[in-house]
């Protein structure tokens, strides 16, 4: 998409022209600019102090007009004056009106508008030009097969596979929903004149995933210029982002924070996010990151569990366990694992109910108490005299699952880098493996303290 001769890739604008775009469209800067840091051009563009700055003494460092915020609400407004955008959003139904769905479709539309081969489609607006300044993000979905193989044994491997499957389903859903729209058939899907392919959908997903921020009063959105700021966690975070009373996006220096002229103005993408999520969504790890922080390991329901099909059908929980740091120790949480370790003999039951319109649905019960949401099962189990038994089952299952994950990581080891593997993915994969192995080993030790010995005398 946005191709010259359908072969030369997305059109890009030089970041040198960005200040002109920002000024023309009402973005104001106070003591800052956007550009590459001297001697760190490889990191791309960021927000840089043009003079010494002191938090608490400065007005907003940046103000972005609310009309430029790429949110679901604004896209609805754009669709009122852009019938082509409106046609696609309506064709996609509910997906087209979610924050992520709306933004991705909007980005795809702007890519179409910019394409030299496309005529009389869409409405050109300030954000049409903005996306030309955005760099391609080397997220794991764009790693080669050899590079993704480096992730074997890490939680990122399963996440990338699941994401690729999800993106492919979305892409086919878009094709099915829009191939009956005349201009979509011609410019997107026609074998000879169509320009859209799966890489384009991956690209707009990567743009959104790496730049979307949760703005107060707006929700998940992309805010031009503010989304140029890089991430730094903890005390290294220099600035905060929010909306002002008029709904504009603003960037504020943290109270007491001093940034010298030429220094970088950073924000946080979420200090609680783990190493896996940082690579998955943003394609980097902070140099100072010494722990995986949090990780999600998948857990399956055994094939020989007679209730397995019903459990899979009714579950509302993610199929795994989240392991995370808490107060200098390791803890875990999961709604799903309690469904795995509870069986018919314990009182778990499923019944088929016919609704008034003739449809059938499955109801879940625990000891004759209806369980309308499987995430509530843990509460039911805690109130049961056999709670320590259920807790022990969960701990034993989790210990086994952690041990198998550790074994895979150790078996694969630290693979050598071949000529087909880029340095960036190789280094990220190596660091992630080390961080996750360390966290799994710490989690295993923590679970030993919660195992059978700790419950001795308490289990009937």
TrEMBL record:
Q: What is the top-level taxon of the source organism? A: Eukaryota
What is an example of a GO molecular function annotated in this UniProt entry?
A: protein-lysine N-methyltransferase activity
Enumerate the InterPro entries for this protein. Answer: SET_dom, SET_dom_sf, SETD3_SETD6_MTase
Q: Residue limits of the SET domain?
A: 30-270
CDD domains listed in its UniProt record: SET_LSMT
Q: Name one GO cellular component term.
A: nucleus
Task: Report what the protein is called.
Answer: SET domain-containing protein
The organism named in the record is Trematosphaeria pertusa
